[in-house]
């Protein structure tokens, strides 16, 4: 199966809708972190703003539920908490030109056969067929390895199992991972597996419980905190294998976001969750494909900050693909309810997903 | 990973518990389908009955929640509904010899490391590691192909997906399936896939909905009913591929049990669910391994009629392995609550399970 | 909150679509239980058939996935398995008059606010708000007690808990139950509770396990089988309380459909699942509201045989309301995928649902 | 149903196990945030440390997975990240006196009937009976209102529904809530409901979607951020009802912990998740009962920091009760796997739980 990017469908700005539209209005933020009344909030779609008559501008790095700030004609998409008093913020909530704003909700051609006519089985469940999704994913990942940026978002379940941890490590080493977004737990249990071959005290292959095994994750945290960082613990030879090790070897960036469930935490973990959001968004802005596995919290967080489109190196607009893989229909439905319309989902255990995907990619 | 059968631990009948025990008592069934008061109900374990002083008999084909009937010294394990008035039924509910009955609840050695000491992660969830379960399963299935009988129990989800349906067909053709227990839906959707390449009107690979696709399963049923049987529809060339086709080619028995959800039904389906139980138990009595996939109803039904042990061709007692594969912790917990203690479980989507298992077996 | 039935929107048969339509065609069934090629399959909606030019007939007792048989101008909706050779079966699959068939897919006005525009939260999850659903349900049930027929469909979970079993018994005695559709398990565990105050050996209020409690459901079955019927066991004073007792006291019909999971079964249980379907449909044809609780099997079975409309005693067309209550989004999605579009759902534990509903009705 | 506290079972320190035990050892933390090798990690149980021969000390505010620091004979239970270089940390991992440490794993008498013998239904599922749990909860909450401290931990689902939000508000106003631990989302949607009667744009009673309703939660955040705080927005009359309003009126403390999913956030939200942990633990240390509803993240976070015991005002040791209420068996199993052994669970929709509980308490 070969892969080709769908072609962006530019709006036709010669249409009367656009010709007759006013310029977008911008009003000053009344104070730091506060938007003016009637602020415009962004969607996941490309949005155009008529900054001067006849000039429709598309901000470069978008995401949903943010505001649009005009700095001398340059538009940026900003979380409201990052506003500074006086920033000129776009106001207006009509989306079809009436306020000088156009939300382009069908930027790419809809694949044939995917129309939502009446049919049985219109909703995805565990009984949906996923064969084609795997095959399309393999060709997508092969394309993105060369031409894009694949960002993985993961819960700790991926490293609780020997084979899936190994598959993920191989994916990193073979170039299919451009960045990792996760929490303290994934890194901690991956490091526990390197130090003791266990996750939460249970051998990751044989599942035998170690004596005093419940100390392992606390000891792993202590070892790394003593070394000063994950990097230092790898450099001093404490951590010799696994996902974090492979990321280090390949120089691949990661963000570990803290949460109130954390023990430790590991030194690289962001304690401030909004600093973590900023670091995550820096990475997501370069993403062309997002793979979100077995984490409701991080999947929704990243879904919120992932636009439906980005730019190729050649400056062309292309879609951002978003896969979520989870056991739970609830997570999938929740993502759908949240508006991340471009998401595709596979309902399965991520252990099988990773092992199957690695094998499908021939690694 | 090589496979060896655990060795049966015969009770030591020279112990005082047995020496001092009375003979088991048998009383006549008061009428058809009714047991005498205080009847003994069987468990999933081997159970011995002292039929004459010093002679402890083990019935050949056991299952739980049945009664034990004595026909001139030969013991059989019988569903109460199959009792005939006057059948001599074992009475007594003590399980350690007091009533001449011994329930042997630890017939095989417990594998090291599986003891239930305090530990994190004592319950299986989707986050349990399953790598070793797959590897052990491959070696088990290779052993059973030669030396045992592998009975598969399945819900329709296994044929909704192109790759898993193909994997299952390969498993049949390569000798890893000795019998199939399923419902009307599995066979219907498998046949729909052969006739129209759809399941409930959706292409099983591309997932495109066919025009009038909701007719496909009704048409599939009508085609087979017109032919007179699945067999006839295969013989006349209507059904050319798939699971039912492979079973037919290899002469492998199947039981399709009817349910109140059925359309059709297909001609081979048992309308009487207790006749279906009898047919299923005939097959289960020969099983050495049961693979139950993606069906709560059939998994529990078969779990109820599967003993924890059976006999090798050489007459030795060996365990019956019972795997259940499902997305739902509820099904797994329910099975545990029901008493099928010997069950092992893998929590995943059966599509991935079948594709992975076929690949792990090298087919 | 008061309740009023939505008014049926009769098609306007004076429109050209109807004026220019041919008469519906009927062809003989080629043999028993087999429909002619190109048979028309019914939906859940009202469907009109032009039997003579200008005369559009609506069959009285419809259900989906059946065929329409013409007996001298009288149309009946028949399961294909019940066809007799030579029965005149409607053929044609166009639904907008082209084949003399009109499927009326919007028979009742859509409530304001329920349109499917873009919005967050378009899918129901456990986080949907259900306050209004309860309040509307109370007013509906009060209306139906006087003017309709409320059919309850239930899994055994409703009698595993003391308070919900009592709530259900009260609903029966207060006239909110016109029929019950269930399986062997519900009746068995309800009777076990009457005999021993346990369900599967666990006290239904204190949850304490009884010694030898696993015998209770087997003993309950044996007691009733010895008496000859549930009715006889109530009449002889063995069963003194609970759901089955209340149904008996009030003369309310029930259907217990057998399944391959059953122990026993109780004498009243249908062994033949298609005979059970027929008995269930006889009851469902009179239903004006269906309440389906905590059973995937029976909910889908009854959903398949429940039309979206029925007739009032005065001969007017009115909707049939279908509520499903379950813990699992999967069941709800599955029902949606199956085409039972008129279903409303509440995602909760049925224990709470029954207790809350009984209290909301003031009983 | 009346309530009485179980009586603490003091260890008998005159036993040889204790008489012959060495004193506990304490070693200095090698640097800030790092424990010495072989550090002792606390459990949820009471733990005694022999600080001088014959003197067994019990730290006052315990929690699991922490270290024990000795400040001149006063023991405190400290998260490793809060250690300062040179702090004297208890080392030794034996739990039965060998290291001068005694973990008292059966501090309270086990209720009769709750022993873990063989039985059906040993695991809790959605089909477990919960009647008694409700009744015991009512009497517990009535007791705790007078004599204890009830800490509620909640996900946003509790305010998505009109009736459950109102029930929770009543519980606050009637004195059944001593503190609230939640995230940004709960407060945001509660405030959205006060401002616009919606949650994520959907009317919380009628479920109608508002035009531009997806702006509501962003507008709610902006309104509060403009006011400066939730308190200020209540004081200026913007927020007039709901849970946050009731907490403010009653002067009840709350902690809102930030997460990477947050929009906004509200001004009171802790951006630093470890500062949030500290604030939460300050509250949990006073808790006598914890009610955790519909949040996996916060439930596990609070479960980790909640000990199994605390002290009454009179200085007596009593249990801390921990209830978790969720739709998902996974959350419950996960809690069990994590070691929060004292947790009790109710599997249901929290909407029903709150409405039922408020009614059960007569409010």
Topology, please?
Four copies of one chain form a homotetramer.
Chain A: H1 16-19, E1 25-28, E2 47-52, E3 55-57, E4 67-71, E5 74-78, E6 88-91, E7 101-103, H2 131-147, E8 150-154, H3 162-173, E9 179-183, H4 184-196, E10 198-199, E11 202-203, H5 216-227, H6 230-235, H7 243-250, E12 254-257, H8 273-284, E13 289-293, H9 296-305, E14 309-311, E15 317-319, E16 321-326, H10 329-337, E17 343-347, H11 350-360
Parallel strand pairs in A: 8-9, 8-13, 9-12, 13-16, 16-17
Antiparallel strand pairs in A: 1-6, 2-3, 2-7, 4-5, 10-11, 14-15
Give a written overview of the molecule.
- 4 copies of one chain form a homotetramer.
- By secondary structure, chain A is an alpha/beta fold.
- The radius of gyration of chain A is 22 Å and the shape is globular.
- In chain A, the strands form 6 sheets. Chain A has a 6-stranded parallel sheet with strand order 12-9-8-13-16-17, with helices on both faces. A 3-stranded antiparallel sheet of chain A has the order 3-2-7, with no helix packed on it.
- Chain A contains 11 helices and 17 strands.
- The interface between A and D is large, with 47 and 48 residues.
């Amino acid at each position: 199966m070969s892969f080709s990017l769908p072609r962006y469908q530019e709006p036709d700005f010669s249409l009367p809708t656009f010709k007759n539209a006013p310029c977008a209005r911008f009003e000053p933020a009344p104070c730091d972190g506060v938007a003016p009344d009637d602020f415009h909030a962004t969607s996941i779609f490309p949005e155009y703003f008529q900054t001067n008559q006849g000039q429709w501008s598309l901000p470069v790095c978008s995401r949903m539920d943010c505001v649009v700030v005009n700095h001398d004609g340059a538009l940026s998409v900003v979380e409201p908490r990052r506003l500074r008093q006086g920033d000129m913020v776009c106001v207006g909530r009509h989306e079809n030109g009436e306020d000088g704003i156009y939300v382009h909700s069908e930027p790419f051609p809809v694949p044939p056969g995917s129309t939502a006519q009446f049919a049985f089985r219109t909703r995805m469940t565990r009984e949906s067929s996923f064969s084609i999704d795997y095959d399309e994913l393999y060709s997508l990942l092969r394309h993105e390895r060369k031409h894009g940026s694949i960002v993985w978002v993961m819960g700790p379940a991926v490293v609780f199992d020997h084979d899936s941890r190994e598959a993920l490590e191989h994916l990193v080493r073979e170039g299919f991972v451009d960045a990792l977004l996760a929490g303290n737990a994934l890194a901690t249990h991956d490091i526990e597996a390197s130090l003791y071959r266990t996750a939460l005290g249970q051998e990751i292959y044989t599942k035998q419980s170690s004596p005093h095994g419940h100390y392992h994750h606390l000891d792993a945290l202590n070892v790394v905190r003593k070394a000063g960082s994950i990097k230092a613990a790898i450099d001093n030879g404490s951590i010799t294998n696994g996902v974090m090790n492979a990321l280090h070897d390949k120089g691949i960036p990661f963000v570990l976001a803290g949460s109130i469930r954390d023990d430790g935490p590991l030194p690289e973990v962001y304690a401030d969750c909004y600093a973590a959001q900023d670091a995550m968004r820096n990475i997501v802005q370069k993403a062309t494909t997002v793979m979100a596995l077995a984490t409701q919290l991080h999947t929704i967080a990243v879904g919120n900050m992932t636009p439906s489109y980005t730019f190729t190196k050649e400056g062309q607009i292309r879609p951002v693909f978003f896969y979520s893989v989870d056991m739970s229909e609830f997570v999938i439905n929740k993502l759908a309810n949240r508006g991340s319309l471009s998401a595709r989902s596979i309902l399965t255990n991520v252990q099988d997903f990773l092992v199957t995907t690695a094998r499908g990619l021939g690694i």
